[in-house]
Specification:
The structure holds two protein chains of two kinds. By secondary structure, chain A is mainly beta. Chain A has strands spanning about 5, 10-15, 20-25, 30-35, 45-50, 55, 65-70, 75-80, 85-95, 100-105, 105-110. In chain A, the strands form two sheets. In chain A, strands 2, 4, 5, 6, 9, 10 and 11 form a seven-stranded mixed beta sheet that branches. Chain A has a four-stranded antiparallel beta sheet with strand order 1-3-8-7, with no helix packed on it. Chain B is an all-beta fold. Chain B has strands spanning about 5, 10-15, 20-25, 30-40, 45-50, 55-60, 60-65, 70-75, 85-95, 100, 105-110. Classes of the chains: A mainly beta, B mainly beta.
């Protein structure tokens, strides 16, 4: 029973397209995150939601829009995909009173 | 400006010996540090953590040491096992929701 699940696992698409990545957690956590792992392997925070409210919004292009319909879900929509968006995107969740995060398996996005 | 640095991209160790993974940070406001382990095609999983009020935390074969004056922490794995082969991420937090990760160190444990 997967705690944090992301779909799809792989996403190959053309430049200019719009795509979404979905994330769901069944841990009852209040806080969810999106990270980007680029070619240099750093895990960089993009967004965080706490109880469906946006609390972290790093310097991410406006083409990226997170949506949290409820506490268990945090989706990431990307408009007008660019080559530089190719990366692995990880979703994570945590209790709001804890620093430990639980990660999904990642979505490898390849923009051609 | 990378606030958490893992300067060794990879480390190779013989099974049964000690593995020492190092991490340096620049932000003196960090007060909680974590290590995550990542296998290929999986997400990072939490391994061990330490609060800034401590200098050592131990959990089985894993020990994390924190040297605040040097802004340095290390993860010791004793004895190392082939199943420990993975990428290890150092991470730091100022007590809020934002956690800063290093680039990771790939550990190879040879049988």
């Amino acid at each position: 029973d997967t705690a944090v699940s992301q779909t799809p696992k792989y996403l190959v698409t053309q430049m200019g397209n719009d795509k979404s990545i979905k994330c769901e957690q069944n841990l009852g956590h209040d806080t969810m995150y999106w990270y980007k792992q680029d070619s240099k392997k750093f895990l960089k925070i993009m967004f965080s939601y706490n109880n469906k409210e946006l609390i972290i919004n790093e310097t991410v292009p406006n083409r990226f829009s997170p949506k949290s319909p409820d506490k268990a879900h945090l989706n990431l929509h990307i408009n007008s995909l660019e080559l530089g968006d190719s990366a692995v995107y990880f979703c994570a969740s945590s209790r709001q009173d804890q620093n430990i995060q639980y990660f999904g398996a990642g979505t490898r996005l390849s923009v051609l | 400006d990378q606030q958490v640095k893992q300067n060794s991209p990879s480390l190779s160790v013989q099974e049964g010996r000690i593995s020492i993974l190092n991490c340096d940070y620049t932000n003196s406001m960090f007060d909680y540090f974590l290590w995550y382990k990542k296998y290929p095609a999986e997400g990072p999983t939490f391994l061990i953590s330490i609060s800034s009020i401590k200098d050592k935390n131990e959990d089985g074969r894993f020990t994390v040491f924190l040297n605040k004056s040097a802004k340095h922490l290390s993860l010791h794995i004793v004895p190392s096992q082939p199943g420990d082969s993975a990428v290890y991420f150092c991470a730091a937090n100022t007590g809020g929701f934002k956690t800063i990760f290093g680039a990771g160190t790939r550990l190879f444990v040879k049988a």
